[in-house]
Specification:
Elements lengths: L8 H6 L2 H19 L3 E2 L3 H8 L2 H4 L8 H7 L7 H7 L1 H13 L3 E3 L4 E4 L14 H20 L2 H8 L4
Antiparallel strand pairs: 1-3, 2-3
Helix pairs in contact: 2-3, 2-7, 2-8, 3-8
Length: 162
Amino acid sequence: MKNWESRAKEIAYLLNPAFCGRIIYHAIKTYSEETKRPMPFPLVYLILPLVLHRKTRQRIKSVTQMQIWIQRNPDVLIGFANRTESMVQITNEAVEFLMQSGIVTLTNNADLDLEQLFKSLSASKYTNDEIKECISKSSNIAKWFAKAGTVETIYISWGVRP
């Protein structure tokens, strides 16, 4: 990934830390609500490649278990590892933005937790339909992760390595 100043304006606008952070925030929030514990840090790297890839996002449904959904939609795994790798820096920037803003903290166990003040931010404020869909699907993904087992199981299911 290029330095921020060297990026194409379209990429910089679309993948800015505030927007990507908002998607990640809602995933962390939903995961915490579902499990009553913070989200394991490594899971954050799977959120953006799933949500921001339109063909994948449009097919995500949290009512189906993650592993079953992957079996029914094996084509989503094509290129997923490359997308995930290419989104690492953008994910890092978004998480750094959330942490510097005081919205998210890193626990002693390397999990991501929300600061109490930010546990009730609205998902629909200042959004259009596509942003609402991204936020909704990030919550669906968090529900998958909450029920799918260990971080290792989730990564293996998606065919990627941390």
